[in-house]
Amino acid sequence: MIRRWFSIHRDLSVQLLALYLLLIVPFLISLLVFDNLLGQRIRADVRATDLALARAIAQETNLSISRSLLAVESMARYPGVIEADTGEMEALFSVILNTRADVNLVYRLDAAGIMVYHYPTGPGSTVGTDFSFREYYQRALEASGPLVSEGRISPTTNQPVATALMPLRSAEGTFIGLVATNIKLESLSDTLAQISAEHRPDENFEVVIVDSSAHIIAHPDPDFLLLEAGSLLPNVYQPALAGKVDSEILDSPASQERLYTYAPITSAGWGVVVSRPTSAAFATQITVHNITLIVVATFMGIGFFFWIALSRRIITPIEQLASASRAIGDQETIKAEDRERLNRLSQRPDQVGHLIRSILRMEKSIEARINEQAILLESSTTMVSSLDSQVVLNRILEQVQKLLGVEMCAIVALDEKGGVFRARASRGLSKRYAEQFAIQPSEPQSATMRAIHSREPIQISDTETDPTFTALRPRSRAEGYRSLLAVPLNTQHAPPSVLLVYRPDPHVFTGNETRQLVTFANHAAMAIENAALFSRSDMRLQEQTRRLEALVQSLVEGLILGNLNGRVVYANRRVIELASLPPEDLTATPVERVLNRIIAKSTDPEQARKQVDAALKSKGQTAEIPITFLGRAKYLRLQAFDVTDARGISIGQGIILYDITADRELDRMKSSLISTVSHELRTPLAAIKGYASTLLADDVEWDKDSEREFLTVISSEADRLSSLVNNLLDLSRIEAGSLQLSLIECPVREMVTQAAHNAPLSAGNKFRVELESGLPVLYADPPRLETVLRNLIQNAVKYAGTEADIQVNVSHKDGYFVFRVLDNGPGIPIEESSRVFDSFYRLDNGLRRITSGAGLGLAICQGLVRAHGGEIWIEPQEAGTCLAFSIPAKYGENEPDAEEAEA
Amino acid sequence: MNVPTVLVVDDERPLCEFVRRNLEVRGFHVLTASNGLEALAVFSSEKVDLVILDVMMPHLDGLETTRRIRQFSTVPIIILTALGEETDKVRAFDLGADDYLTKPFGIGELLGRVKAVLRRARWSESVTSDERIVRGGIVIDLSRHEVQVSGSPIELTPTEFNLLVYLCRHTGKVLPHRAVLQHVWGPEYGDEVEYLRVYIGRLRQKIEVDANNPRYLLTERGIGYRFSE
């Protein structure tokens, strides 16, 4: 509080005070300085005046005494005087007495000091009186020149006098008496009185002459004559008698402060003391000083008063106002007493009153705004609390009713299907209104459309008089409204909408009402947008999720996503199949459990476990798990990967299970091819090498027949080798698509027989060929067709055995020759039938060891048949195998089209 | 010694004939079969001193045939195959084959192998001393051609037997691959380190308590093997 009081920056009254002092203090200081200087000057002047006066008096007195002295000196030279001739002295003395007003007695003393003569003689003559006791007589005995006596009462004239005398001496220098004149001290005093009178009598001006014995010998008041100087004066006469000139302020014996000025009267050894009361002497200065003090006091007084007034009238109200406005700003309640004070202040007619009135008004308006905002906020909160569009619309209308206190309101929006504005929601209006309300966007008169286009609120204050409303008047009459306000809802992501407010009476919507509704409409628009966007994004998200879900579910690969706790977050259908777990069991199951269930199906669970653990530990590594799944061998490759979020932080682990059975199968087929080709090529080579080395051996001599036999074998085995190489070449050509056929007319039966011969059939095989009657001419590439037939017959022998019945049927249907090679062997399992035509595929499961062949046979057959424009297939058979292929009756008539042929 | 009987099994007639003709002309008694089943039938009815088996045959292939023969006989078996890969050879040895020839081969090669295998077999049979070799828990009865490990008898093929005897006789010595091959298989051999690897492995399976941490048959990496008591 104290701090605040002294803080110049924070307190306006202190500031004002400081400012005032800043202005006034220099002025006052200069005033005081001026006063001081003036005082000094006046004092000096007064002293100088008094000094001059004292000097003047001293000089005047001096002059008077000097004249007396001159007179006595000159008288002393008169022989009459010297001789004490009374007659002569009378003449002389009378002249002197007559010319000198200040002299009242001239006389002659003899050497003994006895009065010889005096003039005027008058009554009471002292002639004959001895005056030798007089101090001046004593002094005259010694002196040779004129001198002045002390003041005394003359016995002759009975008046106070001082005597100027001249000792008389004989020619020999003997003292013979003296001549003297008595100077009337009163005459001196008269002069002084005159001088005193010249000064104002009220000044109590006093001039005193003191003789060398410190007696007052002149004073304007004759009563004081011959009194001791000390009775009237402080000790200022001694310095004067000592010949000094000065002035001093001293207290008189009557305890009055006076200015004493003194000067010596040199001729008589007296002193003049001029004095006056300081109050009189320095009256001017004191006046000036007093004026100064008054001025200072006045300024201080005015200042203080002004400050108090300022403080009370302005600053205190401002302070109160400040705390009140702070309270308003902080929305605190103003204390009752403060409020009362403010109310009192607000009645002042001046600016402060005005200011307080406007702040109170402001408070009210802020309160109103806050209220309004609170209502709006509440409305918004209510509106936004739902994301369902229809609910939002109904809540908007509910809030409009509350906010404006209206009964009827509606929201009209563009129906995007019909391109017409329709009521989306309404309150206090009939069902008919809600159902039938429809405005074409092109309708220019409609308040709704005008609001939409102008993006400004449009009002119709009276439907009965408004010219734009003529057409709709029946509706307003039916619904019972007389005025309406249409406020556009500025939506971007929802269809354009308008909020309509109806009143049953003619009503001009004020600026405030409109503004309030516009603000509300903005909030409402946001709520509508929110709901629209939400529904849109929700749909989109769902769709996207469904799509992703479908994608992930349809993956051939198994996918498991586990969280950091190692529990399944997601697993796709494949995983569910592989782990044979019900889908509902999968979520939140430990990933480990799922993997264990898969590993349990492995043919070597221990090894699989090790591999899986290694793969889970290091991300680059994969585990290959052979499993038996649904009775079939499968190979799974397991790979683990880190699942990270957008910031790269791990949020779990993903595991992919690839089905690499097909890859493995291909690998197996490829290695099988290599071994097969190797075997097939090495077998004839072995025979050739064997027989050749036999012929070359030195230790045995073969006979001619044997040699020939060996060479025959070498030759036929070389043929076999070359045919095998040709087959491989054919196949690679077929696979590269570069096989060239030369079609010529072929005898069917001969070709089949030749093929059977070359197969070759075993002796135990029963072989039959059946041709349909009326076959057309067959055009084909004979060696290729022969290869196809030979391979099929070979296969029949291979798989059905050397004792099997083998039959070849040839028929004709729909422009195709159809060849069928049948046997009564074990048949081909149905699940293998689609793959037997793949290159290097051979029937496995024990059969593999029975057959020797490159696994190329059927693939070559298929390639050659397709090259002819035909197709090859397996016909299901109750017992045995039936391989069939078709060849177009005339090549070129039927485009080689695999799909058609298959159909 | 009588004329040795050789059973030649191959589905490829020319090859079978080639072997038969050559062996017969050199004084062997030759029986032929065109697949494993036939071979087993012949083997059960005739006394055979040597079997020459093709691997890829219908009905019962050479490897399976070897396995079945080994269930009741220690007759020397030479495998003929077009598969030249080491894994195939190892597989053949694992199943009990004594030697291996990759097609195509010359008659000289074949005869060399036949003679060496027969010699090994004869040699192991011909050891008729009463000598008993005892090394730790292993007791080898040379006369009765029997081996006991920790008191229980085990079955060894002639080559395995010969290899074990050779190693035991040089207990503590490091025996280089070549030396072992030439002594056990014959002078024609020397580079067939994989034979050794397979046989040592099989011996370990039969005589060691833990084949992965052998006590007797120690590998001297890059040099050969050492028998430790």
Fold and architecture overview:
The complex is a heterodimer of chains A (903) and B (229). Chain A has five domains: 2-40 and 299-326, no CATH class; 42-281, 2-Layer Sandwich (Beta-Lactamase), CATH 3.30.450.20; 386-537, GAF domain (Beta-Lactamase), CATH 3.30.450.40; 555-659, PAS domain (Beta-Lactamase, 2-Layer Sandwich); 740-902, Heat Shock Protein 90. Chain A is 49% helix and 20% strand. In chain A, strand 9 (246-251) and strand 10 form a beta hairpin. In chain A, helix 9 crosses helix 10 (336-346), helix 11 runs antiparallel to helix 12 (389-404) and helix 21 (661-696) packs antiparallel against helix 22. The model of chain A is unreliable at 842-854 and 893-903 (pLDDT under 50). With 229 residues, chain B is α/β, with parallel strands linked by helices. Chain B has two domains: 5-125, Rossmann fold, CATH 3.40.50; 128-227, Orthogonal Bundle (Arc Repressor Mutant, subunit A), CATH 1.10.10.10. In chain B, the strands form three sheets. In chain B, strands 2-1-3-4-5 form a five-stranded parallel β-sheet, sandwiched between helices. The termini of chain B are far apart. At the A-B interface, helix 21 and helix 22 of A face helix 1 and helix 5 of B.
Task: Spell out the blueprint of helices and strands.
The complex is a heterodimer of chains A (903) and B (229).
Chain A: H1 2-6, H2 12-76, H3 79-83, H4 86-99, E1 103-110, E2 115-119, H5 135-142, E3 147-148, E4 152-153, E5 160-169, E6 175-184, H6 185-198, E7 206-210, E8 216-218, H7 237-241, E9 246-251, E10 257-265, E11 270-277, H8 278-281, H9 283-329, H10 336-346, H11 351-384, H12 389-404, E12 408-415, E13 420-427, H13 431-436, E14 438-439, H14 447-454, E15 458-460, H15 473-479, E16 483-489, E17 497-503, H16 511-554, E18 558-563, E19 568-571, H17 573-579, H18 583-586, H19 591-599, H20 605-617, E20 622-629, E21 632-644, E22 650-659, H21 661-696, H22 704-736, E23 744-746, H23 748-758, E24 766-771, E25 778-780, H24 782-800, E26 805-813, E27 816-823, H25 847-850, H26 857-867, E28 872-875, E29 881-888, H27 898-902
Parallel strand pairs in A: 24-26
Antiparallel strand pairs in A: 1-2, 1-6, 3-5, 4-5, 5-6, 7-8, 7-11, 9-10, 10-11, 12-13, 12-17, 13-14, 15-16, 16-17, 18-19, 18-22, 20-21, 21-22, 23-25, 26-27, 27-29, 28-29
Helix pairs in contact in A: 2-9, 9-10, 9-11, 10-11, 11-12, 11-16, 12-16, 21-22, 22-26, 23-24, 24-26
Chain B: E1 5-9, H1 13-25, E2 29-33, H2 36-45, E3 50-54, H3 62-70, E4 77-81, H4 86-95, E5 99-102, H5 107-126, E6 132-135, E7 138-141, E8 146-149, E9 152-154, H6 158-169, E10 174-176, H7 177-185, H8 193-207, E11 217-220, E12 224-227
Parallel strand pairs in B: 1-2, 1-3, 3-4, 4-5
Antiparallel strand pairs in B: 6-7, 7-8, 8-9, 10-12, 11-12
